[in-house]
Amino acid sequence: MKISIIVTNWNGLPLLQKNFLSVIETSPEASEIIFYDDASQDGSVAYISEIQKKYPQVIIKAHRHNRGFGKTSNDAVNSTTGDHVVLLNNDIKPHFGYLTNSLSHFRDPNLFGVGFSEIGHENWAHIFWKDGYLQHLPGTDIKKTHISGWISGGGSIICKDKFIKLGGFDPIFAPFYSEDLDLGYRAWKSGYKLLWEPLSHIEHKHESTMSKFPKRFTDYVKERNRLLVVWRNITDQKLLLSNYFSIANRCLFGPNYIKIILAARRQIKRFPAPTVFPKVTDIDIFNLFK
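The chain above was modelled as a monomer; its predicted structure follows.
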């Protein structure tokens, strides 16, 4: 089993200085560590270039123009030579054994990927349908390996060929939010399985690049993408009907939601249908998490 690691970055020099060496030190199983930069202007690439002189397994790749999280992650995965790929954000610091404790699960040929356990926020993604939307809460059964609605695009290990087969992160969600939820749901619907491993420990400082954007903008993108997750993935007619009623109610009491609807429709017109190979129904997926 050949393992590649990707660390995606955009203007995250302080985070790289805190975390990147830890990625190298705690990942002896990896044959390569690909640093994929999304057109940073803060000296990030120069910093990693100095590290690369000592650690030849570090490979540097970069976009000339900023493309966002999903596109950068997809390009990074496609550039790897491993058959299993670790996805890490620049604000993640892994602990020793985080890979070893997750690799045995890949004996299951239907496994899409394994999410790592964030110290202080140990939980898996409990997904369910309520009030016309796909909802999620932190899973509370955290003492053993558990299925998960999705795995983090910044703290997990995936089977590369399955990731590519599903088209990776859907660009419709750019610049951020919901890419990993959408991919996880498409994986479940295509008959794959996602797990969360409590013994694969990572630290997450929650200093992501999204904090660089105005809150009003991030709230807008979050609501738009929440609606897109439903419209792009849910095919059960009863669930869709409940979504339509919920949308009507939100417009009645908050007319500004019309802007969210129009924005979501514009995105759908711009992008092709998502890649999915339906084997499991929406109801069957939600029943797994009851």
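The chain has a mean pLDDT of 95.
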